[in-house]
């Protein structure tokens, strides 16, 4: 069956968040806070271990008192902020205002970079008339990131967990997205980096393909390698073929 629509995950699939070091530096600069180089490196190391950067490295361990909110963090903006600022507060930073500053920074479009082949693949799919959606486990509105990077015009629908109160792999998100694209799930491909969350699309009949969640410089053509554009351009088989 020809591809009628493609759903993409956001973080680790189309875009990648900046490094923990760049994230912390931006928040420090915004607050006008200075720290010694050795303290900066220690803060980066501890924030990385705690998983405090949304879209960044996973926590080495989730503290028991944060476990419930962490598991449900993508269901609402409140839970998302509580989970990630809670993780950041495990690290003793020199300025109490940094915890909120760090959270605000990760929502800044400047903190995100599209993968090198993202625009090419989205434009190629659009050229062939393929409907495009974004399905993300997230606690905030990512649309400004797409607008800032000139990709919003290539997306037909956004389905965000915090706006629906459920998170992937719940099939309801994928079913909603296919409905918004106007196509049966059997003609829709889901592309993501999470083998558990994004695989939920298979429950509604979507084909599921994966890319690796790598730094931008280390994954120049992960989306292109899926050959979705080539498949979209293939003519459907004729009668008797």
UniProtKB/TrEMBL annotation:
Gene3D superfamilies found in the cross-reference section: HAD superfamily/HAD-like (3.40.50.1000)
Superkingdom: Bacteria
A GO molecular-function annotation: hydrolase activity
EC top class, as a word: hydrolase
Record flagged with keyword Hydrolase: yes
Keyword terms of this UniProt record: Hydrolase
UniProt name for this protein: HAD family hydrolase
The protein's Enzyme Commission number: 3.1.3.-
